[in-house]
């Protein structure tokens, strides 16, 4: 019982302290003016209430003649911009956390494009003329897509514009003293009203002046257009409803945002499956305000300002996808295993063994001659693993040299035989292209769209007239995409690593990979990509917060890694094998022995030349 009384006393003490704090705050507001019932005092209270909802650091006053807002400037004490002509001359270059005070409904005639964009989301307080109706003012601002508008008249009535309702405004309470009394009463009924949603009709003092208008769009259409460059955005025909829908990791961002704010995604009536749209055409529709959000990606480098772009959605790199090096022919394997360094070491060993063999026969240099050293048939056959005749009654030194020759021949023949069998089983590939110079010297050409060739290839790699023929320019960008999507390995294609994720996933179903992504040869290694939106999109900030939420929770990565399988599931794409691997041959042909036969003929020709030289030497010096 005592514990219950203590809890009740603490509860009453808490309510009393809360009521005292609110009363003190009311007394502080009451001392702002000696005449609290004047409109000036009420406006000061209203501006303070707006600041409590969301802070601002700059005031902008539109009005050609002095009005009641000009009289408040000494009491406000904030940086203020006076626009008497109804428009600013310079671009808005300071903070956009501003409150706009407008002397009458026609005072704001802003024409500066940059200022309009930065002040679109700013809050506006309009001093309403007696002959003006709130409906007319709200409708005029809604046509300019400026939705954060409130109005106050000379009588003291406060109105706030609302987009998605039949009557496009609501009337709120202006006198703050009533609000504080209501808040104190609400604290007493805290237990019964804590879990209840406040009713704006029965208790107008709790209505915010400025609300998030687009949190519930009530079916408002969002005009979107996909570029149909899978897998980021493509059109899907749903058989159950017969309607067209957009899919892909970009389209999913738009459709999920529409579900979040209770909107609908509207496509063109004449849109069709697989009709790819060029980026420039989509941007033209965006700039003409015919699209709200475009389901494509644009780089921040393409625009001096990001007026038509959202917050960066993703980053990427732009490198080359290069055909996988082909396997070497069997005839080239014989020359491949003979490395110059190893061949040089074997020749030096042969000369050393020849000298040792000559000296060990009589332990002197009487048998030494240049021909005997360079063409010692015993050492040559011994290093090649062939039998050679031993002299009768050899000395122990000669036996030791022969043992060394036999050991070296076993090591050499075993090494080359292992190389040969391994390469015949798994033939090695050609050289991997690791630089742009390697690409220029290869048999491949770079396939690129003509419009982007100057900015993406020629300027980055300083191509000249001598090597410009290594770049193949395509006027038809759809033909270029078709070649890349069918994995035509006659060219090298620039591609973003975002798209490469899908191509890599698709190659998993091939019998062998066709292309590889070269991170050594890149046009741009870090690019910020964003979605194009029209200039004065009123819910741009809400959409950008949705972008950050999708990134934060990892949903974007899930969409990207599952994009190809999603296209296959929707039957937009297939797992067709575009690879053409050569069937391994189980036998050798004469053409595979070309290099060996050439070497064989060259050796025989050298032997014939040596034989002719010996005959000539013998005839000249009379040797029989």
Automatic annotation (TrEMBL):
<dbReference type="InterPro" id="IPR052192">
    <property type="entry name" value="Insect_Ionotropic_Sensory_Rcpt"/>
</dbReference>
<feature type="transmembrane region" description="Helical">
    <location>
        <begin position="597"/>
        <end position="618"/>
    </location>
</feature>
<keyword id="KW-1003">Cell membrane</keyword>
<protein>
    <recommendedName>
        <fullName>Ionotropic glutamate receptor C-terminal domain-containing protein</fullName>
    </recommendedName>
</protein>
<keyword id="KW-0675">Receptor</keyword>
<keyword id="KW-0812">Transmembrane</keyword>
<keyword id="KW-0472">Membrane</keyword>
<feature type="transmembrane region" description="Helical">
    <location>
        <begin position="333"/>
        <end position="359"/>
    </location>
</feature>
<keyword id="KW-0325">Glycoprotein</keyword>
<dbReference type="GO" id="GO:0005886">
    <property type="term" value="C:plasma membrane"/>
</dbReference>
<keyword id="KW-1133">Transmembrane helix</keyword>
